[in-house]
Specification:
- It is a single chain.
- The chain is of the alpha+beta class.
- The chain has one domain: 6-pyruvoyl tetrahydropterin synthase/QueD (Tetrahydropterin Synthase, Chain A).
- The chain is built from three helices and five strands.
- The longest helix has 16 residues.
- The chain is elongated.
- Bound molecules: nickel (II) ion.
- Nickel (II) ion binds next to strand 2.
């Protein structure tokens, strides 16, 4: 099994807030991240595809193809957007790095035809990242 990674970056703003909690509870849990008008991050996304080498191409997946799948389904939807307001597939979701990562997985899952989606990793800062490998991953 080989693991091929494509990295992409995007900038977005968000506000961490759980609509089911009170204003005070949200302030307590999310602190600065609950700032009413939000704040921004430069996110780094890493998408890993696992598979065997195709004997004809020598690739697990053509990285040009993976690049355009990520661009079309994720980057073009999230880059320079406010995740609480501008993104249809984030509506009603508290946009923590965890929840964004799962949403990105769901956007990409099923769209990769060479190899298999193995992991989605999202860096919110240089030091903080979340990795998701799906609900019932067979790997
Ligand atoms: Ni934040």
């Amino acid at each position: 099994m080989l693991y091929v990674t494509r990295r992409a970056i995007f900038s977005a703003s968000h506000r961490l807030n759980n609509e089911n909690l009170s204003e005070e509870e949200n302030k307590e849990i999310f602190d600065k991240c609950n700032n009413y008008h939000g704040h921004g991050h430069n996110y780094t996304l890493e998408v890993v595809v696992a598979g065997e080498v195709n004997p004809v191409t020598g690739y697990v997946i053509d990285l040009k193809v993976l690049k355009s799948i990520i661009e079309e389904n994720v980057i073009s939807k999230l880059d320079h957007k406010h995740l609480n307001h501008d993104v249809d597939f984030m509506k009603g979701i508290n946009p923590t790095a965890e929840n964004i990562t799962v949403a990105i997985w769901d956007r990409l899952n099923g769209k990769i035809n060479e190899g298999k989606l193995y992991s989605v990793k999202l860096y919110e800062t240089e030091n903080n990242y979340v990795e998701y490998r799906g609900e019932a991953n067979e790997f």
